[in-house]
Amino acid sequence: MSFPNRGSQAMNSAAADARQIPSLNGIRALSFGVVFLSHALALTSYPQIFPGMFGVTVFFVLSGFLITTLMRQEYESTRTVHLGSFYLRRCLRLFPPLYIWLIVVALIHQTGILKAHLNGKPMLAYAFYVGNYYLAFNPVDHSPLGTRPLWSLAVEEHFYLLFPLGFLALKRFVRGSRQTLTLIAVCLTVLAWRTTIWVLWQDQTYIEHATDTRMDALLIGCALAVSDFNPWLLAKTPARAIPELILVVVCVAVIAGCLVCRAQWFRDTLGYTLEIWALVPIFWLAIQRSDTGLFSWLNGPVMVYVGSVSYVLYLVHDGLLGVFYRLLPHASWMLVSMMALAASFLFADIMRRFVEKPLGDWRKRLHRTSLMKGTSSTSEPDVGVRPDNMSVGRRRESTRSRSARPSSC
Q1: From CA 13, how far away is CA 17, in angstroms rounded?
Q2: Would you call 31 helix, strand, or coil by DSSP?
Q3: Which residues are bridge partners to 387 per DSSP?
Q4: Span 22-81, pLDDT tens digits
Q5: What b/e string do you get for 380-409 counting C-beta neighbours within 10 Å, with b at 16 or more?
Q6: Which among 60, 52, 57 is positioned nearest to 33, based on CA atoms?
Q7: What is the pTM of this model?
């Protein structure tokens, strides 16, 4: 069965009323909160009840969905993806905050207040986006304070580097719903590879950090994006409150079961797969039902703001936790955490105003320029946009007609 897309006519981006994909910033804010609390509690003797690794998994699924949706919009508008423009936009988005933070880390170590040695090898690994494999192949971690969470950026950068080529190949050689099935098959292949590594070597560190063992979290988001059920490109569907609530409860229960399971073989193999599959319905409902009570809070101003600066918050929070913990060794972990969180927001807001916003405006201009080479255009904000009446590909014929609803997000 096919479904109508939102919108019916192509239009030039200069006149487009761009709207953000709802709920994504809210999901980012929640994910950062889980990661921050996980790292804050790691400074204490309390049990680790916040699953930081799951927060990273949510970031992966979101990135896969967002980037693939943007590429799908561009492809269905221009019949291609302009790789040079795509890579330049990713560089402008990711590189400046990362390298500024690495410089700050180096300066902090040079002051001597941490009484810690600055190891150059992991710094270079993180700078060249291979930090995840540095951790995977170094059981004893010598990462400088404030750099260990950067391993996940390497996984995403590898995805940004390789997937656009795979996306173009998918569009050229695979048709219709087989594109989604192909991506699902790759996800299952990654599961088989994780299982093989566990059976042969039981290498937990490699499984947790390597791109080849974690790529399925990004690809499941890609599968949702290329499917006929993409919640942003699909016309608004009638809500079914009780069944949808039951679905959310079941998905949350599956995720909770995976997180509380203490069998390491399960968590490093099937656990990751069940988590990402359970996230897919939650993502779909969060976007399609963004105006309902169950998900509308994800789009409140506080959640949107936190999500908009979540990249920098993720970069700096662990390092600032470590700094305040060492400067105030006798302070309560709650005080240390609050001070580190406040400093993280201050740093993130400065970066947003003076680095990310100017470069973001440049990225939008680059995106519009690349799309003007095709038949229509869109603009690209940090969390994805779609003009209200922009055609997202040719309208598919359906056995029954459905009215397309303009975006209300």
Answers
A1: 8
A2: helix
A3: 18
A4: 999 999 999 999 999 999 999 887 877 889 999 999 999 999 999 999 999 999 999 999
A5: bbbbbbbbebbbbeeeeeeeeeeeeeebee
A6: 52
A7: 0.88
